[in-house]
Design a protein that fits this description.
Distance between the termini of chain B: 42 Å
Structural class of chain B: mainly alpha
Number of domains of chain A: 1
Order of helices and strands of chain B: HEHEHHEH
Oligomer: heterodimer
Strand order of the largest sheet of chain A: 2-3-4-1-5-6-7
Shape of chain B: elongated
Number of helices of chain B: 5
Strand content of chain A: 15-25%
Shape of chain A: globular
Protein name (chain B): DUF742 domain-containing protein
Strand order of the largest sheet of chain B: 2-1-3
CATH topology of chain A: Rossmann fold
Largest interface: A-B, 47 and 38 residues
Order of helices and strands of chain A: EHEHHEEHEHEHEH
Helix content of chain B: 25-40%
CATH superfamily of chain A: P-loop containing nucleotide triphosphate hydrolases
Pfam families (chain B): DUF742
CATH architecture of chain A: 3-Layer(aba) Sandwich
InterPro entries (chain B): DUF742
């Protein structure tokens, strides 16, 4: 990307002609490559907001000090890319732990769907996020971020079984550092969304 | 808005809204688009509201982008934007025009747009 470090002038505001603003969640555990994927697609340097978790964490730590609760924050990264025809796509990196539930609902509101990033070296780290996505009813696709040292001996069936995926849930491998590869993963999700809405039910 | 490099904003989020926790509008989405109405800023506008107004100089921003640039939580920007909407200093629109909300072609247009991003 060719943007100067200071983003206060050009590139900060919405492009002229921006008409339809849509949102896809890039969900996954910490360190799985959410921000890397967002950065490889985004036309702006990814931004972030600091979100407080006080309400979300209240039920589980209500005896453990109010002061600590009020200062728990998490940074939510997001990026933006303008598509043809006045569409602006926002990608929100969304951590998937149970304690983010109420924040999750707010971010997921109005989203087209979720791309769930999975690290095949630690598949179990993605169970929470898959649970949250399924509970929210958001359609999703799974993308394995191809880390160089990831085991390559698992078959697709083994990975599907490990994640307990429905047969029609798309599952792809991607390199989150690579624009084309990240776009392909997003396309797998969007094609899934299109296929879920056959013309006769419109 | 004053800020220290790499540090927290000088105005804490809970003070930026003057202690108001709920926006005056029922729902500003993260991707609701905020635009200046063109009305000049009145004198005596609270500093955080003025900072949001100034962030909209020269173009529109979504609620979440305004929050990121002002280094405030989204919840605080919802409150500030609600106050500016009440004073007709700012206009807000939904992320997708209501008539297109359930446009069946939207997904296809997103797919086409993504394909066009790919380079050989």
């Amino acid at each position: 990307m060719a943007f100067a470090p200071s983003s206060t002038t050009s590139g900060m505001h919405l492009p002229d002609g921006a008409r339809d603003l849509v949102k896809i969640l890039v969900a996954g555990p910490f360190g799985v490559g959410k921000t890397t994927l967002i950065d490889s697609v985004s036309e702006i340097r990814p931004l972030h907001t600091e979100e407080r978790l006080s309400e979300a964490s209240a039920p589980v730590d209500d005896l453990d000090g109010i002061r600590e609760k009020s200062t728990t924050t998490v940074a939510i990264d997001f990026g933006r890319v303008s598509l043809n025809g006045g569409i602006v796509l926002y990608l929100f990196g969304t951590p998937g732990q149970e304690r983010f539930r109420s924040l999750w609902e707010d971010i997921a509101y109005g989203a087209l769907g979720a791309l769930v990033l999975v690290d095949s070296r630690r598949v179990d780290a993605s169970f929470d996020v898959l649970g949250l996505v399924e509970e929210s009813g958001l359609p999703y696709a799974v993308a394995f971020n191809a880390f160089p040292d990831a085991p390559s001996h698992y078959t697709e069936d083994q990975l599907r079984a490990a994640l307990d995926l429905e047969p029609d849930t798309p599952m792809v491998t991607c390199d989150a550092r690579d624009t084309n590869s990240s776009v392909d993963a997003l396309l797998a999700l969007v094609q899934h969304l299109i296929d879920r809405h056959p013309p006769e039910t419109r | 808005m004053s800020r220290r490099p790499g540090g927290r904003p000088l105005v804490p989020a809970y003070l930026s809204t003057g202690g108001v926790a709920r926006p005056s509008r029922p729902h500003l989405e993260r991707l609701s688009v905020l635009t200046r109405s063109g009305e000049p800023a009145p004198s005596g506008l609270p500093a955080a509201e003025l900072a949001l107004l100034e962030a909209l100089d020269g173009g529109s921003l979504t609620v979440v982008e305004a929050a990121a640039h002002l280094r405030l939580p989204v919840s605080a920007v919802r409150v500030l934007a609600g106050a500016l909407l009440d004073r007709d200093l700012v206009l807000a629109r939904a992320p997708i025009p209501p008539a297109e909300r359930f446009d069946p072609d939207l997904l296809k247009r997103v797919a086409d747009g993504l394909r066009a991003l790919k380079h050989d």
